[in-house]
Automatic annotation (TrEMBL):
Location relative to the cell: Membrane
Domain named ABC-2 type transporter transmembrane: residues: 27-378
InterPro entries: ABC2_TM
GO molecular function: ABC-type transporter activity
Protein name: ABC-2 type transport system permease protein
UniProt keyword Transmembrane, yes or no: yes
Amino acid sequence: MSSSPLTPARAVWLVARRELNTRVRSKSFVISTLVIIALIGAYVGLIYFISQSNSKSTVGLTGQASAVAEQLKATAKGFGEQVDTVEVPDAADGEKQLKDGAIDVLVSGAPGSLRVLVKNSLNDAVRGSLDEVVRQQALDAQLAQAQTGLDPAQVRRTLAEARVQVDKIEPEDPERGQRLGIAIGLTALLYMSLMIFGMAVAQGVVEEKSSRVVELLLSTVRPWQLLAGKVAGIGLAGLLQMSVITAVALTAATSTDQLTLPGGQITGTLVTGVLWYLAGFFTFGTLFAASAALVARQEEVGSVVQPVMMAAVLPAVLTFLMLPRSPDSTLLQVLSMIPPFAPIIMPARIAMDVAAGWEIAVSVVLTVAGLFAFIRLAGRIYSSAVLRTGGRVKLRDALKSA
């Protein structure tokens, strides 16, 4: 740094650039990025392999439909699907078994006009198999009338119209699974980045404090400038890693047709995710730094930042557990508007398209207000405690002398 007076903005930028360059060029950054990318690639490959491999479905047959059991099994093999059939006493019992998960599909009706009931979706291979059974039944019926003469056009129309009628107990949102995947993936990346790079902020503060480097730095810049620059630089390193990982994951998912959402919808979700990441990292990063400033040894970092870590763990765990089952639950709705939980929960709710406009607006306002409050609090603690050596500084003492 130059000995000439620095403007506050330039001082923050110089510190941020130093932190960014240090993190990005480190072996740990490169290795962790490559490992995560490899894991994502392996996961996507596994999902693709499973989706392409033979699966198994249990089909309940009731009434006249029981006559097609063997034909259905044989036809399904041609579609790469293993089908087990069970006889169901009546439609009411079959619907109950569907809801309980005992069977995947309930088939009723005459062999030539089968009706299908599913809980929320029908396997493409099973649908194709049932359609083929109905077409074969229709063809057999036409051939049985061969003695009266066949109209080729009528035969073609009959076969073209021969398909099963499918009803659903709980109609499925066709995009829900993909939106849920994006929401969970986004939450995992946000949480992982906050933890990894938040701890990097804390360890960096203690390292500079224990080696007395901070005393040299503070002879040139003010404490708040050092704090802001450190958090910004390490946060940008985290954003860079998250962007690379996201790009690889999206490329893998789209190339294997596991992600087919419109590009505009994906882009909008990612842009909001970046904005929430920045708000979340500045909130948690400053709190990590302030907490770490209270101690002077690396061995004490884990215990002193425990409350901050729990504030990030709680919303992440709740999101992982509750979002797949009840994304519009009151608990997630409320917590997604309260800092510091909002930057972790709200992006997932936005990705799932369950967050109302007013909820997003309230969340943004409270998060920005909370961000300034947390930064001010962290700045006071950091300024007071970072130059104190020796034992652990009590939080109350740091606030009193600030």
